[in-house]
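Board work, copied verbatim: Methyltransferase domain-containing protein
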Amino acid sequence: MIRVGNIEDGGWDICNDERFRPRSPCIVYSIGINYDFSFDDAIERIFRCDVFSFDPSMDIGDQNRSNHIKFYKLGIGDKNEEVIFRGKVWKLKTLKEIQEMLGHTNKRIDILKMDIENNEFQTLPDMIRSGAMKNVAQFCVEFHHYYDIQTIRELHNLGFRIYWSHQNPFAEVYKNDQSYSFGNDVHFVNINMVN
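↓ predict structure ↓
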């Protein structure tokens, strides 16, 4: 395993086993940036991947961050729509629609990193049902508050296996001298996508 990006929040632990390690040319989707491109920048530098970054909440437009990193002011959802959040319009697309938009239908997605602040279990069922997850080799996600066991089971049925999970230290509350987590980073590899 290798830590990619910030050692604190914003960085992610990637499976570096040769069977799952990204190999150039490679494709990485980084969904949920919050102005921290440390993961995206490190992926480009370490693995030489093309990185596609998405976040509808940031006050910057679509842009090429570098030759291999493209940012889209776009979020992921369970349907293509525009929503109003905190007085701003956010454009959302399904993972399948994003793959089609980028010409990645049926292409290997080496890493899909997703931190979408409490919307993962609303979005994941569509990602699974649509077939958009079948070519994802590594899936790194921050789960908030609860786990939908049926969705986890469906990921397992697609070949996803947890290789690492930990409490996000930036998603902790302390009460009566005990730590409670409302966010866990969970890392999967897809055993059907071995290099």
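The first strand starts at residue 2 and ends at 4.
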